[in-house]
Design goal:
The chain has 192 residues and is an all-alpha fold. It is built from 7 helices and no strands. The chain has one domain.
Length: 192
């Protein structure tokens, strides 16, 4: 949803520069939200040998959160002029509340599962934990980069070619789409 604020900034500044300068704070807030979820999960590698249960719980949590978002679908439909510092906070809160980090846990656990063996001793566990943090950072950066590139392209297209009139006439419920994706990814985690 950050692309809406990027478009809003561009419209208010009457320049594509307004769109572009909004993207780094949005990316940073999203990165913080993803890291806030994935880094603690990566530390669980110290204690968790059987990740199947954690994957199952993450899948159930995703499905539950998706159903909750379907039931509780209030979302404001207005744009506000906010500063770049507030864009970081907004992006962090939205990515956290929409479950962006939560959605990556099942995929992160599949990467982590490759190195887990029940007979690991403490040195091996410490090594795995260190690798888990690095992997969590890499997953966080890759996800944030793909998110901000997608948001940037959408914001640029809407600002440059479609304008606010298109948004007013053809608004659709993105929360519904996001809720369905949460449920879908949770289902994939349960089946994996």
């Amino acid at each position: 949803m950050g692309w809406l604020f990027a478009v809003s900034n561009g419209m208010q500044e009457r320049s594509i520069k307004g769109v572009l300068v909004a993207l780094p704070p949005l990316a940073f807030g999203h990165l913080l939200a993803i890291a806030a979820v994935l880094l603690p999960v990566s530390l669980l590698s110290l204690y968790v040998v059987h990740l199947h249960l954690l994957r199952l719980l993450a899948g159930l949590l995703l499905i539950s959160f998706g159903i909750f978002k379907l039931i509780q679908s209030r979302h404001p439909r207005y744009l506000a002029r906010i500063g770049r510092g507030h864009l970081v906070l907004w992006s962090f809160l939205m990515a956290t509340s929409h479950g962006a980090g939560l959605m990556l846990i099942p995929f992160f656990l599949d990467v982590e599962r490759l190195g887990v063996h029940p007979a690991m001793h403490m040195a091996g566990m410490a090594h795995l934990a260190q690798g888990g943090i690095v992997m969590a950072l890499l997953v966080t950066l890759a996800h944030t980069l793909s998110m901000i590139l997608t948001a940037g392209v959408i914001a640029w297209l809407v600002y440059r070619y479609l304008g606010l009139r298109m948004l007013q006439k053809s608004w659709f419920n993105l929360d519904l789409v996001w809720s369905l994706f949460l449920i879908f990814v949770g289902g994939i985690a349960l089946l994996a």
